[in-house]
């Protein structure tokens, strides 16, 4: 289902192009607010700790979840899609019960297929979804996409 033109669509991506009928934050949503070093690669864009003279690294704005919701005056969320190359763990940890209460469904790609040491963090996030009243099912095994729908 296409939400554009039917629902308010807000995206966050430092590399995306504007799409008519949507709002775009040209940055990242993560565990902190400020500037963050970011590198864009063909197969995986990611946050980096230090540029070390790498010309592919750029500084991009980051908003934490609460600041993002305040900036865009977000009250209710029909669908939240999260695919942030390992950053999903910090973002989900930033949400509290009041945040989860305003979300109807969450689609998230957990990147423990790329970093197996994060499997316990994935399990904890899925458990939290259940505690917050979501029914959860895996919708893509290869890229570990899950869909959490409010019960």
Structure characterization notes:
This protein is α/β, with parallel strands linked by helices and 151 residues long. The mean pLDDT is 85. Strand 4 (34-39) and strand 5 (46-47) form a beta hairpin. The chain folds into 2 domains: 1-74, no CATH class; 75-151, SepF-like protein (Translation Initiation Factor IF3, 2-Layer Sandwich). Helices cover 21% and strands 30% of the residues. The strands form 3 sheets. Strands 3-6-4-5 form a 4-stranded mixed beta sheet. Strands 7-8-10-9 form a 4-stranded mixed beta sheet, covered by helices on one side. The chain has a two-stranded parallel sheet with strand order 1-2. The chain has helices at 65-71, 88-94, 97-101, 119-131; strands at residues 10-12, 23-25, 28-30, 34-39, 46-47, 57-64, 80-82, 105-109, 134-140, 145-150.
Count the domains: 2
Helix content: 10-25%
Anisotropy-based shape: globular
Continuous helix count? 4
- Structural class call reads alpha/beta
Task: Let me know the number of strands.
Answer: 10
* CATH architectural category of the largest domain: 2-Layer Sandwich
Q: Based on the structure, what is the oligomeric state of the protein chains?
A: single chain
Regions with little confidence, pLDDT below 50 for 5+ residues: none
The biggest beta sheet reads: 4 strands, mixed
Overall mean pLDDT:
85
Strands of the widest sheet, in order across it, are 3-6-4-5
What is the top-level CATH class of the largest domain? Alpha Beta
């Amino acid at each position: 289902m296409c939400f554009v033109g039917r629902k308010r669509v807000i995206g966050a991506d430092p590399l995306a192009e504007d799409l008519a009928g949507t709002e775009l934050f040209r940055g990242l949503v993560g565990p902190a607010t400020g500037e963050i070093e970011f590198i864009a690669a063909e197969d995986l864009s990611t946050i980096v700790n230090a540029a070390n003279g790498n010309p592919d690294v750029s500084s991009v704005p980051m908003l934490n979840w609460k600041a993002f919701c305040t900036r865009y005056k977000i009250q209710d969320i029909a669908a939240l899609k999260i695919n942030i190359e390992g950053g999903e763990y910090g973002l989900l940890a930033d949400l509290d019960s009041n945040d989860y209460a305003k979300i109807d469904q969450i689609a998230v790609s957990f990147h423990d297929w790329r970093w197996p040491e994060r499997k316990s963090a994935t399990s904890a996030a899925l458990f939290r979804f259940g505690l917050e009243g979501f029914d959860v099912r895996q919708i893509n095994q290869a890229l570990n996409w899950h869909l959490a729908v409010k019960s």
